[in-house]
Amino acid sequence: MSNKAKKIFLILSVAVPFMLYCVYYYGMMVKNAPYKFSEFEGLKLEYGYNDSLLNKYNSITGDYQFVNRQDSLVRMHMKLSKDDLLYLHRKAAELGFWDFPSNETKQDAKTRSMRYIIEFKYKRKTKRVVFDDAYQGNDKLIDANQRLIKEIQSKLDDNEARLRSINK
Q1: Alpha carbon of 39 to those of 64, 86, 92, 147, 154: distances in Å?
Q2: Is 23 in the same domain as 75?
Q3: Closest CA to 142 of 108, 43, 53, 134
Q4: What is the value of pTM for the model shown?
Q5: pLDDT digit string (tens) for 132-161?
Q6: Where residue 56 sits, what CATH number does that domain have?
């Protein structure tokens, strides 16, 4: 057997089975991933000071209520588009939302801070995170929470502005 034939045989007997195994293994992981957009049902966001969560959005029902600058409660029906929901799903995956602890609240109940409840609902699983602005934890985790909240609120604000311009 020549030197070239030995190298080809080695490549075929080691590299090809390894590549086939990788395709099989990672294909099964992607197929069985718990948070797939094809199974996405909706997202909920609630926020307010401590336990008075007056600001709420539910993408399943389209119910949106918030306190405006004049301190009055505004209720409206607003559905996010599938593209917006896909964007938020991908942003949550990018920021590692699925690995966030479910309780990120502060220890001291006396101080007043904003509390956010973010929930992504899927057919097989639901991920719910309670986050306080005064949470004393990992800085990267706090930053990821704040960025996700900012993204969700910006999508809600954009759609609200679009609805208001259509209704005028």
Answers
A1: 23, 11, 15, 24, 24
A2: no
A3: 134
A4: 0.76
A5: 888 888 889 889 999 999 999 999 989 988
A6: 3.30.1560.10
